[in-house]
Design goal:
Elements: H1 5-24, H2 44-56, H3 61-76, H4 80-93, H5 98-109, H6 115-121, H7 125-131, H8 139-153, H9 158-174, H10 191-200
Helix pairs in contact: 1-3, 2-3, 4-9, 5-6, 8-9
């Protein structure tokens, strides 16, 4: 029997929260009190401090993934209103740093060795942040869901629309055809695979 759409979404969110728990351990001592569900204005500075910590990238790969997973957990703990404020903060305050990009372009035009800096400065910090999720369990699924919400917000907010377009390119690189395997799924496929299909398919009813 097919699951109701709302139940499927709830189960998907719960799987994401669970996947982030172990990865986020070790980052908790630096994040302070949890964000409140509706993300009131006086919580925004604490949210931005967490985002800034992720972007600084201190420590090794494990530490970076832990901070990213903790931020993902914080996002999933918010109400729909809180998630909207989270995404708008990310899109508006962590978009393309225009002044830094222009300075680097000027150096590049002057013939100075600025190619690496140019690539860095032309990538919005928000995209650099979400790139960290590629190594986090269920991280790619998380970014896909974020873009779905940004697409809806982008209908009325230019910054959200710009970030959703930037994520389109990022996801396109992650889902390059060279990284995919095409296999036929039928009733002889493993039961665990069929169960995942029923659980995660949020568009077509599967019996």
């Amino acid at each position: 029997m097919a699951l109701p759409f709302s139940d499927t979404v709830d189960r998907t969110l719960e799987r994401l929260r669970t996947a982030f728990v172990d990865t986020a351990r070790g980052a908790r001592e630096a994040v302070g009190a949890p964000l409140r569900p509706d993300l009131p204005d006086d919580d925004i500075p604490r949210l931005k401090s967490r985002i800034d910590a992720c972007l600084e990238g201190k420590g090794g790969e494990t530490a970076r993934r832990g901070r990213a997973a903790e931020l993902g957990q914080a996002y999933l703990s918010l109400s729909p209103a809180g998630r909207k404020k989270f995404l708008l903060t990310l899109a508006r305050d962590y978009g393309l740093p225009r002044e830094a990009a222009l300075k680097t372009v000027d150096k590049w035009r002057a013939g100075k060795d600025a190619a690496r800096a140019l690539r860095r400065d032309l990538e919005p910090p928000a995209v650099r942040l979400l790139r960290e999720f590629v190594g986090v369990p269920q991280g790619v699924k998380f970014v896909v869901d974020l873009r779905a919400e940004l697409l809806a917000l982008g209908k009325s907010d230019a910054a959200a629309k710009a970030l959703s377009e930037d994520l389109r390119s990022l996801l396109g690189a992650w889902f390059d055809v060279a990284f995919l395997d095409l296999v036929r799924i039928d009733w002889r496929s493993p039961a665990s695979l069929l169960e995942k299909l029923v659980t995660y398919e949020a568009v077509h009813a599967i019996r």
